[in-house]
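quick one: DOR bound model?
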Amino acid sequence: MRTLISGATCVLPSGLARTDVLIEDGRILGVDPPAGARVDETIRAEGLHLLPGVIDPHVHFRDPGLTHKEDFRTATRACAKGGVTTFLEMPNTQPETITRDRLAEKLALASEKCLVNYGFYIGASLHNLDELKQATRTPGIKIFVGSSTGDMLVDDQATLERIFAETTLPITAHCEDETTVRANRDAIGGGSTHADHSRIRDERAAVICVQRVFDLAYRHRHRFHLVHVSTAAETELLRDHRGLITGEACPHHLFFNVDDYERLGSLVQMNPSIKTAADNAGLWQALHDGRLQVVATDHAPHTLEEKRQPYPKSPSGLPAVENSLALMLDSVQRGLCSLEQVVSWMCDAPARVWDIVNKGRITAGHDADLVLVDLNRRQTIRNAEQQTKCGWSPWDGTTLTGWPVRTWVLGQTVFCDEDLQPSAPDSPVRPFQRGHYDETVRGTEAQFDHTRGGYWQTMD
Ligand code: DOR
Ligand code: ZN
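yep, here:
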């Protein structure tokens, strides 16, 4: 089956171009194929933009063990709707993903339930060094050097030294200094409002921990990716660290700040906490000048019932995977960034940072993981329409301009909006509806090639 996506403006590695894309057997067969090439199906996409599928390298999908919050099926329906075609998931599930056996079990579960491509980090514990050394089929190692949801804290210096010295997989870490967090918490008597969350998990906690982990990465020359950078101060530490260290920003740290607690309370309670408007600006600046390379969501659903508990009982985390691309497309419309930058931060750079083979770009031979977007579509985020099992979004009621209208994973449609432009007469008629998902599609395990060196060595 050959499908031609015709007439869209494509975001190619060389820039924007209005051209056709031919896909077959799950791959991109050609960009700007010769006229007269055999085609079985034509998707008319005039007026729309074609992007590589989004790779979200930082999510918490709760499967197995916490499936009252989310599971692979609901999470990946949300991905499909949001234009996310590959995700990399964190190990703080139950059981925790801290052995090769548990990694294999999670991969098997995902192969049954996921509509999009998947990969899973292996988590560090105080006693699993051998597992970390021998793990394969994983993008890398996740260490909770600061505590968060779950019970995975590893902040013992001797253990960290050995992990950085003796393992070879890329490492990522949650960085908030425990001693500082505890001292802040004691200083305000434990905290009683959601705004206290940002006083407890403050800028100092983030910076102290990041400095400590960067020191480990440098001394051991170990490839390191800093997740969910929340402060402008941390981005200063990312200057001149290219090649060995990369970093990411999340939509909630780009778009929310402490002024939002009054309106949203625990819905914006996250670890690391949201910070100030100046930090929002600092993160945007760091994306623009390349100190941060990636936008990832840290999608971390909890039920509204759990979230409604008074602070500090309310858990940290918010869902974002189905709205992250739209939030960034809306930012293009608002003049905050270009479409090419969005593709770099959400598609190309994640593939390079985590050495994911054949994804992140629209180029012949790459996987046909694609998303068609309508940059003019205005749509309001509604809790009732969310695919995530938790059924809410901190952006409920927000109207954004720029939305995915169709998503392909390995050449197969996983999401198609009802209002997509009509198909050409020669293409099979399908009952397109908003939220139409092809449940027969299954994603595949992402392939990683860690032999290619650091992020910048792989830049063309
Ligand atoms: O707010 C957070 N929630 N931060 C994390 O690091 C973990 C996440 C979760 O799993 O709930
Ligand atoms: Zn996380």
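Residues 422-429 have pLDDT under 50 and may be disordered.
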